[in-house]
Amino acid sequence: SDWEAAWDTGENKEEEAKPAEESVGQSGPSWMQDCVVSMSPCSDLLVVAREHKAVFLSAKWRTDDSGKEEMTLAVSWTGTLSADEGECVSSSICIPLASQKRSSTGRPDWTCVVVGFTSGYVRFYTELLHEDPVLRLKCRTYEIPRHPGVTEQHEELSILYPASLVTIDGFSLFQSLRACRNQVARAAAAGSDVIQPPPLAYKKWGLQDMDTIVDHSSVGIMTLCVFDQMKNASILGGYNSSVKGSPPAMAQYVTVGGGPFTGFYYAVEGSSQPLLSHVAMAVASKLTSALFNAASGWLGWNKHKNEEEAPQKHRPKVEPATPLAIRFGLPDSRRHGESICLSPCNTLAGVTDDFGRVSLLDLARGIAIRMWKGYRDAQLGWLQVPEERSIREFSPSASLPRRHALFLVIYAPRRGILEVWAMQHGPRVGAFNVGKHCRLLYAGYRLMGVNSVTSQGWQLHTQQVCLLDPTTGALRTVNVPFHLALRLAQRHQNMHVPLKTLCYLLDSFDCDSSLPQKCPLTSHIYTYHFFLVLSTCITDPEEVDPALLQLCSSQLKLLQLYSDIQQLHSAADLDSFAGIEDELSRVLPTLNRYTQLNSRPSVSFAQDSPDSPLSAQAFLSHIECTPEGELKVTRKSETEWTQLGNFLFWGCLCGKSSLHKVCDTLQQAGISPQQLLSLLLSMWLQREKEILQRPEETVRNLHTLLMALSNMKGAVEDSWDPQSISPWWQQVRNTCIQSHNAAAALLAALVAHCAAKASITSRADSKLQSEWEAVSLDLEQWAVCVRQLEDVLVLQTLLLLPPPQGSAGGATAQCSIKMLLEGGTGGVADSVSKWVFRHNLVPERLKEILQKKEDKDSDDKTEPRQGGTEKEKEKQEDNDKMRFPNSLSPDLLFAHCCWEYVVQWNKDPEEGGYLCLAVEHLKQVSSAHIQLGISTMMWSTFIVKRFSAAAFLMEKVCDTHTVCLCDVGMGDKAVTSFLGCCVQLLQILMEADSAVEEVTPPEISVDEVWCGAEGPASIAELALEQRGVHYPLVQHHCLLASLLHAAMMFSLKVKPLSLFDSKGKNAFFRDLTTIQLMPSGDMDPGVVALRQEVNPDILRRHLVCELYNQGLDLRAEEVMLEVEDKDVLGSQLLVLTGQRLSYSLLHSQSQTQPAMELLARLPPTLCTWLKAMDPSELRCPLVPLTQTSRLVSRLIEILPENHAQYSLALHLLEAVEALTTED
């Protein structure tokens, strides 16, 4: 049955209707009632057991035939649980154990299944606590106290036997289960099933003075008040009994059965010591119980399912129970209790008996406070429902702690009905026909292992009450709205306010009470707060608070408006307007290109879609009714504002709604035109993609809507002078100026411009009655705004061009009029420079595009056809240059590109190519003044700090290979590139400083429509403001940069700063605009003396050997002519020749058979000498044999015949000639 229709709105009367599935249920399976069923409170595990067999079902997601995903319970394990012959499952419980990870948000780590048997065993792992059959397993987990002073209850597992009760501390059980799980996992990994269970701490009470016990509840720790303590002492000890100063803490246990019907037991804390059951000493070393094999196999740990049981099994020693006398009970000799169900607040309990009654117990007072009859074999559950946030906001007790409502759920299988009753003396708030073979599953606990610290910030995903239907396999959850408990505020017959009472109340306002079939009031009657106010406060329609009447009247007015708008979206009217076609056709090519580039697919969520319908609750939350009867729209978030505008106007723009009727309805409702205009423009700008799919139709409808809104009362003031600015049209301009959706903003501006022109013309005609054209300040501002939006659209189209593969990439920049104006005179150039960086456009290519624009006609005749992407970039750049002739002048654009690249390099210095491109862009700047200023700013802002760090580090370590990342911020290769760029930058700086005196500084012009920019100065303007540099100081730094670059390039070990005198050292790294004391320039005598001591012939010989080492034999022969000491050079070249021949004969991977035969014919002395050579020293070992043969011939010419190695050279010549002949 439908949930909303199932709530009982009348008196408490029995359900006469037969359930629809009764005919099926009579022949359906009844075995479910005989099974032991337990479910995890997290709804992820269901256990069904009967006799010695069990089935485990785990939650899994599956997709049905329609593609919808749903949660199902699938069989994950089935088998036999009993270990001893003749024992059967008597009780089971699923305990989810909380995760100990810090990242946990409340989901369980794993779930432990605890099973009790008729033999007395309770098995999580093999355990014997008592020899009688296990009657019932129950668990209590941690709950955060809702009120101060409430005793914090500890976790506990309780096990009921016919005459005993065993309680296990939750913390000890949690740690033991985790330890056993780890042992089982390790044993399974090792291929063994031998584990050593840890000892388990528990308490065992012998329950006395009660004939039979079938169920129990562990209420927890309680402390009596002083009066109750004195009362109990007087009853138990008499008149002269003494009373302790502080009441003792007691654990309360409530049992049901017979003789008496209900028993109350109290165990004083500390009266008996906990008993330790050392299971490891009592159980055999090898545990092969059926449960271990079954459960470990279900969890994926068991590898020996077919292993036979051990021939003998030792029964552990059973600890004796501590006697616990009954304190009092509810005697009823004929009544026998069947089950007890404890409420979540631990103050109430529901008890079922064999007379078909359900009793409600007050556990604190020990009395029965309520009884229901006619519920034979009933199953109970509790629901504790917190107060909704929406109700809390309008409650007079909003500052007090959050309220909770308590409901008792009763399932009567004999009648096939599920009932929900409000506590403690409340009525039945719901009844459902569910079938006669269901099982009501109520856990009564949550996750184990949670405490006040670990539960902070958790959201425990647990279900309180579930109903399992075996005929359909459906598992339903029971949820009760909190506001049903509020009906108890009226203590007389008319406690429930049905829907007809609300309609009667609305009739008293002369309103139409026959609400539409799909009225939001009827669909949201249980969730909307003003109905809750009615249902809790109104007892008589004639005695109603006037404020409440006004509230209901305003809400009905809003709902009527909502219904009217929905009905108007089904009828459309068409208007024709031909005044904007010319303007639209003029910008249509750019719009098409913009649409093509902006139509890339993107990911969005369905609930965020603008096409999602606006609910009545959302509509009412946006609009409020003032005491004067006007409607005021409250602006919350931008998304909600746009969604409301979409609900009101999108149907009009698409042609699906009647524009004039919608505007008339909104005007009659009393919403101000300014707010309607804001809603319309917000929706228009956000739905740019849909608008560009059919621009002609949407523009025409927008013009009609805008004219209709303009004609509303209060839109354009009657006293407005056309020579002043109209606030109405200024609102439209401000919205378009701030929008980043360039195309939608331009279309809105074109429409508004035409509408404003028509409005001003009509006003002028009515006043002047002449043919003079009306001139207005508003029209002038509209002309400027439209031109600016056209510029922004062209610029945005350029920025939308996708970058090529492998470029820097990044998000596409968004621009608007406001952003460009706030960006100053360089705002446009800055945006284009970022686009250049994203596309990795080299300076030469950018220069070609700019030059072609200046001579476009001739280029069209001579230029060959370009590729598609390059042609698009060039064409779009031309359009931008036409729109921004001054803002995108070559010098200004190159200056911003240079600055953009150096900023990107500063973010990642390892990308040395960025700095190189920055220098290349700087070279393209034609103005020496701008070039000089940018070079100075680059040096002082980004370069000098790293440059000085590199110089000081090289001076310190005297080794270019140790220039590390931590000191300079770059690696070896990046430092080499950086120093090369420093040399080029300082050279540009010196050249620009020499040229500034010959030319005048340029003037930075601004485009006419962008002259209102009020942002920061452009890079070019800042460059012109820089002071001149001191040329000798720049030259001094350039010398140091060249020295450092050469040292890094050639891996020289040198101390660069030591080569300068004290004046030169002090002048380094100073501001280039200051005058410093420079070195005299005279040669240091010590350096001159050192140079005279150096033999240049040594350098020449070294150069010859290095050239031969690199394979540059021809250049080496040229330098060899200048060498004086030929004998020493011959010895050096002889070793190099031997290395080449050794590589060819011994170390080459492509050794041939003739080469091996030649090696065998060589003299032993030569073979030994060749084997001693190390070819790895050669920089270029793969040299043709002809070059090696030529080198040996030169050796014979150089070496004299009496040289000690002359014979070796002859042997080398023979070997090389033999190799050459064989090849």
TrEMBL record:
This is RAB3 GTPase activating protein subunit 2 (non-catalytic). Residues 31-441 form the Rab3-GAP regulatory subunit N-terminal domain. GO terms for cellular component: cytoplasm. The lineage of its organism: Eukaryota, Metazoa, Chordata, Craniata, Vertebrata. Residues 675-1093 form the Rab3GAP regulatory subunit C-terminal domain. It is found in: Cytoplasm. The keyword Cytoplasm applies. The gene is rab3gap2. It comes from Sphaeramia orbicularis (orbiculate cardinalfish). InterPro entries: Rab3GAP2, RAB3GAP2_C, RAB3GAP_N.
